[in-house]
Design brief:
CATH superfamily of the largest domain: FAD/NAD(P)-binding domain
Mean pLDDT: 96
Number of domains: 2
Strand content: 25-35%
CATH class of the largest domain: Alpha Beta
Largest sheet: 8 strands, mixed
Helix content: 25-40%
Distance between the termini: 34 Å
Structural class: alpha+beta
Radius of gyration: 21 Å
CATH topology of the largest domain: FAD/NAD(P)-binding domain
């Protein structure tokens, strides 16, 4: 069976759904089809997301992340309000532990100003007025536009909107390979005028079939959160440490969920295959060998000290270690309150094989036949709406180039 469509989107996470919705606006009167290998959309990174709507002050002004996070925060906040989706506008404190962190706070403040993000420099006393349990050295930063939502509720609403707008969503259909100008799937062949690869953990694999992602491969990192059993409201705002700006991870922090519960995390533990959520779940021998070899290579030759990162992150399988790290950010943090792990998520982190480094920004490659979203990691959830418009503008320009 051959199914014809003008545009085929591979991957039903928030990026794939947002791109499909934007395609309808950009190319009206065309047929848009989205395929998702699972039985429903958003069962991987998008649905396992922390739910934080980031403000956009971590990223350098020349990055796509800086370009889209502020607008994405506003767009997704407006979307949730319009759809009556619950949102917790709890804000975020970024706290310092020593003198060196103060210099990094200044850098974040500078980035926030460059990116047009609302960000307030607060004293130690002012930080404690915002959150009495917060610990900081001399001063902190407060982000009033950081908030939290339920990723599952957002995805449910977006999928409903996509269907009502005319996107055809086919679940339980897995991409197999490219066959000349067609796509072979687990449910037949698709003859697509244009292909958009938003496959998350498998985006690089699909891109290779089209001649892209030649110097990149995805390295999976497992994210775990540890939930508190303290009463709702025991901590009122997200509390983050000053991050190591040399890598894309933000460190263990306090996240206040949309319902007011507290969780600490996430980890960034190197996984041994792409969907290794728990122990031997979804074990894939080929992926195991490939990823372990890549990790050994980074262990020996990376430019960002992968060895140190891996050792530090593996220690976070210990609840005690997680609590100790959280204790540096807030007072009265006790191990007895942190007994329950949440669902794990896997970050589809792109590695530049040539330069032996983790890619810090979104990465997109494509031509007049296909476009591949290779590194839509955090804050990809926050950026989804304006990022999708950027993707569709890029496709439009590529197609115009062919016609001209």
């Amino acid at each position: 069976m051959v199914t014809k469509t003008d545009f085929l989107v591979i991957g039903g996470g928030i990026i794939g759904i947002s791109v499909a919705r934007e395609l309808i606006k950009t190319f009206p009167d065309t047929k848009i089809t989205l395929i998702e290998k699972e039985n429903d959309c958003g069962l991987h990174a998008s649905g396992r997301n922390s739910g934080v709507l980031h403000a956009g002050f971590y990223y350098t002004g020349d990055s796509l992340k800086a370009r889209f996070t502020k607008d994405g925060n506003k767009a997704l906040t407006n979307y949730c309000e319009e759809k009556k989706i619950k949102i917790n506008k709890c804000g975020k404190l970024v706290v310092a532990k020593n003198e060196n962190d103060l210099l990094l706070l200044d850098e974040l403040l500078k980035r926030g100003k460059t990116n047009g993000v609302s960000l307030n420099k607060v004293s130690e006393e002012e930080a404690k007025c915002i959150e009495p349990r917060a610990k900081t050295y001399q001063r902190a930063l407060f982000s009033p536009t950081t908030s939290t939502v339920s990723p599952q509720e957002v995805l449910k609403a977006m999928k409903h909107d996509a269907l009502s707008e005319g996107v055809k969503i086919l679940s339980g259909i897995k991409y197999v390979k490219r066959v000349k100008n067609n796509i072979l799937t687990s449910d037949g062949i698709f003859d697509a005028g244009y292909i958009i690869n938003a496959a998350g953990l498998y985006a690089d694999v699909i891109a290779h079939d089209f001649g892209f992602s030649k110097q990149y491969k995805i390295l999976p990192f497992k994210g775990l959160y540890l939930y508190s059993n303290e009463p709702i409201g025991s901590i009122r705002t997200n509390i983050y440490p000053v991050p190591d700006l040399r890598n894309p991870f933000l460190g263990v922090h306090f996240t206040i969920t949309v319902d007011g519960n507290v969780k600490i995390g996430p980890t960034a533990i190197p996984a041994f295959w792409r969907e290794q959520y728990n122990f031997f779940d979804n074990f894939n021998l080929f992926e195991f060998v490939d990823i372990v070899n890549r990790e050994i290579d980074l262990f020996m030759f990376s430019k960002f000290d992968f060895k140190k990162l891996a050792i530090e992150e593996i220690q976070k399988y210990s609840k005690l270690k997680m609590v100790q790290l959280a204790f540096m950010l807030a007072s009265d943090v006790q191990e007895k309150h942190y007994k329950t792990w949440g669902r794990s998520g896997i970050r589809a982190q792109l590695v530049n094989l040539k330069e032996k480094k983790l890619e810090m920004d979104f990465v997109i490659e494509g031509n007049e036949k296909s476009l591949h979203i290779l590194n839509a990691v955090s804050p990809g959830f926050t950026c989804a709406i304006p990022f999708a418009k950027h993707v569709c503008d890029k496709i439009n320009n590529l197609l115009k180039g062919v016609k001209n």
